[in-house]
Amino acid sequence: MKRPESCSQLLARHFAARRHLVVGRDTDLTRIPASVAPGAEPGERVVEFNRAIVAATAELAVAYKPNAAFYEALGEDGFRVLTETVAIVRAEAPGAAVILDAKRADIGSTNVGYVSAAFERLGADAITVHPYLGGEALEPFLERTDKLVFVLARTSNPGAGEFQDLSTDGVPLYRHVARAVANEWNAAGNCGLVVGATYPDELRAVRGDIPASMPILIPGAGAQGGDVAAVVAANREAGSDAYLINASRSILYASSGEDFAAAAQAAAAALDAEIRRAGD
Predict the structure, then answer these.
(1) Which runs of consecutive H residues, i.e. helices, occur in the chain?
(2) Residue 2 annotated among the catalytic residues of the structure
(3) DSSP string for 87-112
(4) Cβ-contact 247, 222 below 8 angstroms
(5) Which of 2, 65, 103, 147 is catalytic?
(6) What is the pLDDT of residues 12-71, one digit of tens each?
(7) What does the pLDDT look like over 196-221, one tens digit per residue?
(8) Contacts with 276 (C-beta within 8 Å, 6 or more apart), sequence order
């Protein structure tokens, strides 16, 4: 179903309402509570778990971010489960965006296939990509002006700096990426960046390199220990409200019991409240 507005416009409305929470859909079959569809096939258990989590958090989430790897791990049934998960978001949380966390990018002809799978077959509103092949290779993504393309800049993992911090002309590589995305790749206004919550100083540097209106997807809150207050401050200091704070495991697996959906709702509400307090 085609939206009446672009993903950028959709998120801008949320930002204006001080809504910034993203719920990851990193559904690990081994962590689904035993009470969810016991005896059903693995794919059905994932679908039912996702359905319960989305229903519980629909009033809080600006977006849902399914990580493609967890669905690919299901084998031949994975694409169906991912498609159903997107459909659940559309039905239960129609005002929320779907960000496919796939970290795609290849030569242009291969990217045409990635674009078709993500945007036509799945119906995602946005996708994560990596910048290593350059802007020319990403043109099939960038041409989709109704979608958002989140380019990895400074990731949340402990070893992120191995390449991302390499200095060129006295500037770390992640800042060169951010500047290229903002100044060269964003002609249609449909680019964003990925910067981890675990690196607030680097986030502050990136935020200063790009327009205040360019959204930053910020994973690493929750289980990875990102500093929410520092993340919000880095954006506010630059006069920006265009940020998305993602948590996955801390919400999805807030309880392993039959109360898992209520616990997920409480965890999402707590993080949303923390984000709002930090913005006051």
Answers:
(1) 7-16, 42-57, 68-72, 78-92, 108-115, 139-142, 161-164, 173-180, 200-209, 228-237, 249-252, 260-279
(2) no
(3) HHHHHH-TTSEEEEEEEE--SHHHHH
(4) yes
(5) 103
(6) 999 999 999 999 999 999 999 999 999 999 999 999 999 999 999 999 999 999 999 999
(7) 998 999 999 999 999 999 999 999 88
(8) 18
